[in-house]
Specification:
By secondary structure, the chain is of the alpha+beta class. The protein has two domains: 39 residues; 63 residues, SH3 type barrels (Roll), CATH 2.30.30. It is 20% helix and 42% strand. It has a five-stranded antiparallel sheet with strand order 7-6-5-4-8. A three-stranded antiparallel sheet has the order 1-2-3, with no helix packed on it. β1 and β2 form a beta hairpin. The longest helix has 23 residues. It is elongated.
């Protein structure tokens, strides 16, 4: 009987937390801010695993992620611009950000350098979509 009471309380509190969270961040549109990271395992040769820690600025929800999620939040305002982008094991160089849908970035190649493993260079004007976890870095292209 006491266990049933505890489970009811936990269910009610869980529902209440979800209700409050949906009021503060409707449709899960959280404003994640980085609170740090931790490095796990590895041999010291680039095979370490990073655990990125985030907290929502509005509702206070905490999140641990293996990928840096703020990359998309940082580049949403650069859609339509030409940026310098590095994509894991693919290429680095200048691309035009076409649009961002959920966790997918649509780009058009301007001028890139292929990765050292495959050495295949995408042709300028080619359009691609990239999952956000493959993007290592994005920076604004400075006008010269």
């Amino acid at each position: 009987m006491r266990r049933m009471r505890k489970s009811e309380i936990i269910q009610n509190l869980t529902r209440r937390v979800q209700e409050l969270e949906s009021k503060l961040c409707p449709f899960n549109k959280h404003q994640w801010i980085s609170t740090g990271w931790k490095m796990h395992g590895g041999t010291g040769h680039g095979d370490e695993t990073f655990d990125y820690q985030y907290e929502c600025k509005r509702c206070g929800k905490k999140l641990n992620s293996l990928t840096p999620i703020n990359t998309l939040n940082d580049i949403r305002n650069l859609v339509g611009e030409i940026v310098s982008m590095t994509v894991s094991d693919c290429f680095c160089g200048d691309v035009k950000l076409l649009k961002i849908r959920e966790n997918v970035v649509f780009i058009e190649i301007i001028d890139v350098t292929p990765c050292y493993t495959c050495q295949s260079k995408p042709n300028p004007g080619t359009r691609y979509w990239i999952n956000d976890y493959l993007i290592d870095s994005v920076s604004e292209k400075l006008p010269f």
